[in-house]
Design a protein that fits this description.
Blueprint lengths: L10 H16 L6 H8 L13 H27 L3 H13 L4 H12 L3 H23 L5 H17 L12 H12 L6
Helix pairs in contact: 1-2, 1-3, 1-5, 3-4, 3-5, 4-6, 5-6, 6-7, 7-8
């Protein structure tokens, strides 16, 4: 759905917001000044009042992605409180569900495969996310190796399920994900 762009938003923010949307739709190569200007309904000359060049816009897009998908998610998780498990589940739901952050996150992951600077930035973001997952597993697991293994499985499932088109032999994806969660969290299968 994306954010509603209202009168309170500055033009610079509008360039960044459109850039995020284009990134999610077509990857970093699709983020072109001409394309964004057309989508916004302005001439491309206005772009240079806010950004030195396209690279500066791409950095601003990455800044916005990191702020929204990590800083704002973690702030909301802390605000809403709860157990480490509830916090991790809320963070996962906010990040890897829905039609706002997930497509942007997947586009950044793809971009990181071709750009070491983006890969380094993604590592920092994922390290922060993994910290929350580790905190959840450490609540009931004393073995640091097991905590790390469970954290990696949970994180890989959260991301990887979006790339797996396989069917599940009469089971729904939601059922299988619930059972995966039960296994990783050591809950009885029910």
């Amino acid at each position: 759905m994306g954010h509603i762009v209202g009168a309170a938003r500055t033009p610079r923010e509008r360039w960044v917001e459109e850039g995020l949307q284009v990134l999610a739709e077509g990857g970093p190569d699709a983020v072109r000044v001409e394309v964004l200007a057309k989508r916004i309904g302005v001439t491309k000359g206005g772009f240079y009042g806010y950004f030195a060049d396209r690279e500066a816009l791409l950095q601003a897009i990455l800044d916005a992605w990191e702020r929204e998908c990590v800083d704002e998610v973690l702030e909301r998780v802390e605000r809403e409180g709860g157990t480490p498990m509830e916090k991790a589940q809320l963070a996962g739901a906010l990040t890897f569900s829905g039609d706002r952050l997930l497509p942007i996150d997947l586009a950044v992951r793809n971009w990181a495969r071709r750009d070491e600077a983006v890969a380094e930035r993604l590592r920092g973001v994922d390290d922060r996310r993994m910290g929350l997952v580790r905190e959840m597993f450490a609540m009931y697991c004393d073995d640091p190796d097991e905590v790390e293994a469970r954290s990696m499985i949970a994180f890989c499932v959260a991301i990887g399920q979006h790339f797996l088109p396989a069917t599940h032999e009469g089971r729904t994806r939601e059922q299988v994900l619930t059972w995966v969660s039960d296994l990783v969290l050591n809950r009885p299968h029910g």
